[in-house]
Amino acid sequence: MRTRLALAVVAMLFLVEGGGAQTTMYGGRGMSRVRSARTVGSGNLYLSAYTLHYVEKVNESLAKDHTLRLALTFGLSNLLELSASVTPYQDTQEGIWGPPGDSELGLKFCYPYSPDWLQLGIHALASFPTGAKHPVPYEPYSSGKLGWAMLGLLTLDLREHSPFIPFQLNLNAGYMDHDVRDRYFEDRKDQALVGAGIKFPVKGSVLYLEYTAEIFLNNPEVPFEKNSMRLTPGFKFVGPWNLIYDIAVDVLLTDERSPGGRDPFVRDYADWKLILGVTYPFSLLRYVKQERQLEQRRALEGMEEIRAKREEAAKALEELRKRLEQERKPQPE
After folding, report:
1. DSSP code string of 164-220
2. Are 160 and 149 in contact (CB under 8 A)?
3. Which of 12, 168, 299, 312 has the most other CB atoms within 10 Å of its CB?
4. DSSP for 36-76, written as a single string
5. Peptide bond before 135: cis, by omega within 30 degrees of 0?
6. Distance CA 236, CA 41 (A)
7. 37 plus 146 within the same structural domain
8. What is the pLDDT of residues 83-136, one digit of tens each?
9. Both 200 and 300 in a single domain?
10. What are phi and psi of 48, to 5 degrees?
11. Does residue 291 share a domain with residue 144?
12. Where would I find the H helices in the chain?
C-alpha cells in the first residue's frame, strides 16, 4: 500500500505545471527538509508557515495528528544565512488541543571559492526543548534536552549546464547530539542526519524528490530499517500575492514489521503526512537598491546632458572654424 502511494504521488507531481525560491519547513534555503549549500542572499527575508497532517484509524476511532510550524530565513550576507523555527501547535495525542513543540535556531556558511555549478556549505543548529512532551507520537525521536547538530552541505546545480534534463542535487550529512551535557559521539541518543534531494524546474515551478533519515549511531537495539526514514515528493510554485506555495507528501520508509528496538528510540511513526506550506519573500535591501538605481539614473541623465552640450559646443566651434577659413581666402578683384 505504501509503495503504491509513493508511486502515485511521484507520477502526479510530474504532471503538475506551475516555481520560485525555496526554503525548508525549518527555515534556510532548501527543499522540504534537505538544505541547499547556498544562502538566500544578502538582505533577503523569508517568512514561512507549514502545516503537517496525518490521520490513522485506531480500533474504532481516528487518531489525528496536526502540526503548525513557523520559520524565518534571513540572508546576513551572500555567505551567511540565519534561520529559526518555532512550533506553536503540536499534537501529542493527549487532550483536545495540542501544546507548543520544539524550536530551532540555525546558521549556515557557504564556502565562497567554488564554481557556480558546485557549492559547499556548513549548517549549525541548536534545538530547544520548548515542547510539552518528548518524544512526540508519530514524530522522529526528541529527547526533551537542549541539543545541537552540525551538517555538511553540497549542492550540484546543473540547471544551466546539463545537456539533457536540467536539475539540481542537494546532499546533507551530519551529526545530532540530543543532549549537550552527555558525552559526544558515544550516547545512545546520538543520531546521524542524512538527506539527499533532487529538483527540476518545470514551466516556472519546481518539482522535487528527497530522502531524509535520522539514524541512531550508538544504539545496537535499533536495526537500520527501524530508524526514522521517509521519501518526500513535492512541488513549489509562486501563486497569488507573490507568495511561494509548497505541497508535499511524506511516505514512511521505516520497516515497522522488522523486530528490534523499543520505546522511546523506536516509535510508531506516521505512515504518511500531507505537508502544506506558504512563504512570503521580502527584500530589506529593495528600497536601498531602488534609491541606488535612481541615483545611477540621475547620474546617467547628467552625463547625457553634458555629452549633448559638448556636442553642441563642438558643432559651434566647427562652424566658427569654417567661417574663419572662408574669411581668410583671397577675394577676387
Report:
1. SS--EEEEEEEEEES-TTS-TTTSTT-EEEEEEEEEEEETTEEEEEEEEEEEESS-T
2. no
3. 168
4. PSS---TTEEEEEEEEEEEEEEETTEEEEEEEEEEEEEEES
5. yes
6. 19
7. yes
8. 999 999 999 888 788 899 999 999 999 999 989 899 999 999 999 999 989 999
9. no
10. -125, 150
11. no
12. 2-13, 286-328
Name the residue with cell 572654424.
321
Whether residues 124 and 191 fall in one domain: yes
Other C-beta atoms within 10 Å of 174: how many? 19
Contacts of residue 168, defined as CB under 8 A and 6 or more positions apart, other chains included, come to: 155, 156, 157, 158, 159, 198, 199
By residue count, the chain amounts to 333
Q: What is the pLDDT of residues 56-75, one digit of tens each?
A: 877 777 788 999 999 999 99
**Rounded-to-integer distance, Cα 261 and Cα 284, Å:** 49
End residue of a domain, out of 284, 300, 325: 284
Q: Nearest to residue 84, comparing CAs of 33, 127, 20?
A: 127
pLDDT at 289: 65
- Are residues 293 and 325 both part of a single domain? yes
Residue 21's pLDDT is what?
Answer: 64
Tally of structural domains, the chain: 2
Q: What is the mean pLDDT of residues 179-186?
A: 88
Q: Could you tell me which of 89, 83, 90, 122 has the C-alpha nearest to residue 105? A: 83
Angle CA(2)–CA(66)–CA(211) in degrees, nearest 5? 40
Matching residue, cell 551535557: 181
Taking residue 87's Cβ as centre, other Cβ atoms within 10 Å add up to 22
CA distance 35 to 173: 10
- Please check whether residues 204 and 157 belong to one and the same domain: yes
Q: Which domain holds residue 198?
A: 2-284
Q: How far is CA 313 from CA 86, 302, 319, in A?
A: 67, 17, 10
Q: What is the CATH number of the domain that holds 162?
A: 2.40.160.40
